[in-house]
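User: I'm writing a short methods note and want a consistent example. For ANTAR domain-containing protein, I'll paste the sequence; you return only the structure tokens, no commentary, since I'll be parsing the reply automatically.
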Amino acid sequence: MKQTRFVQNFRGSRALVCAAPGPSVATLTAILPKLALVPEIVPVQPGQQLVLPDARTGDILLLDGDLVLPDGWTSPDGTEVPPPCPVVGLVGSEAPSRLRALAQLGAKSFLPKPVHGGSVYSALFLAVNEFNLTTRMQSMLDELHDRRRKRAHVLRAVVRLVQREGLDGDAAYDRLRREAMRARVSVETYCQSLHAAGDDDEDPSTNDRRRQA
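Assistant:
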């Protein structure tokens, strides 16, 4: 795994502040521009469940745990989805239920209320970099699961070569790997493409030459 590069500068990022008007919002409105962020106050209705803002990549959400929060992020069709951006929880009450609600929405760091300006950067730094790490790890897991799923196509292609040409398993795999490198794709993706095209009964090198013709 490559060494992690930490984000230290938030220049130009939009900071969505979901909190009831008060001293904490006033402090954030004053401090965030000094950290090169663009604050945007999201209107809230006290006593009513918060409608999460339409956050996008590059945003940072500062979310008040004293609001009535939803259980999680969802897509337009109601499917549960991961948080779209880093989340900082604003904590007035340290009741476990409030902290759990913030954590379920993706909070990776917390600011106690009333917010003090000197603690804002640390909370942003932790939230952004933990979010990036989690996103990167999930991407790696998704890639591993995808490659594992495609392994069935590799096994099928290896067996075909063994049966057709009398190669041993290692030699058959090496041939497929060379053809995949020539096509500049992973061996799993290459073998999947053979199967999808109905070509896995033929010599992979023949298929590759046919595609280039």
